[in-house]
Amino acid sequence: MGNTMTGRTASVRIAGGALAVVVAATLTGCFANPLDAIVDQVSEGVAQDSAEQLIEGVTGGETDISFGSLPDGFPAEVPLVSENVLQSVTVAEGTLVVVSDPRSMQELTAQVKSDFAGWEQIAWSDMGEMVTGLFKKDESLGVSIGIVEGSDGEDNTVAYTVITPQE
Fold first, then answer.
1. Whether 97 contacts 159, CB under 8 Å
2. Closest by alpha carbon to 109, among 76, 152, 150, 146?
3. Nearest to 31 by CA among 42, 49, 47, 14
4. 35: which DSSP letter?
């Protein structure tokens, strides 16, 4: 029993780490490139394929990365501050969805707190340019949220990492 739980915990940590790498790259603008449209399209396809292969290699499971839409089966009970989905990544252990929103950090923070008012708040940190929160609904669903202030006139981004309980 102890080894099974340790193995599952390690698997979730590895998957969480892979999702964290994608979140960090997305939120820091690593995928933005001012080159022309043709190079962007080719680069986006190569980046998506490479990211999927990297995450699949780390997690040992299937990965689905998409741009501009919610993944199939995204939990309806997880409220998003915006429908402007930039990217989503799904692995067996959970899903990452990143949205953008032009509202201020204060407005987005208030919206997230309001949206998750019926959930148990596990953690909350406000560092000005970045706000993070961790919420739990019953024992069935956990959501980590990161709100990052946009730079140079760009919209703010909100990343939702939805942890799927494993049987």
1. yes
2. 146
3. 47
4. S
Structure tokens at 82: 């915006």
Q: Give the whole-number percent of the chain exceeding pLDDT 90.
A: 46
Interval 5-22 mean pLDDT:
45
* Cβ–Cβ under 8 Å, residues 147 and 103: no
Instruction: Determine phi and psi for 114, rounding to 5 degrees.
Output: -65, -45
pLDDT in tens, 77-105: 999 999 999 999 888 778 999 999 999 99
pTM for the predicted model, two decimal places: 0.67
Of the candidates 71, 76, 77, the residue with the CA atom closest to the CA atom of residue 95? 71
Q: Count of residues for the chain? A: 167
From 157, 156, 111, 163, select the one nearest 135 (Cα to Cα). Answer: 163
Q: What pLDDT is attached to residue 110?
A: 97
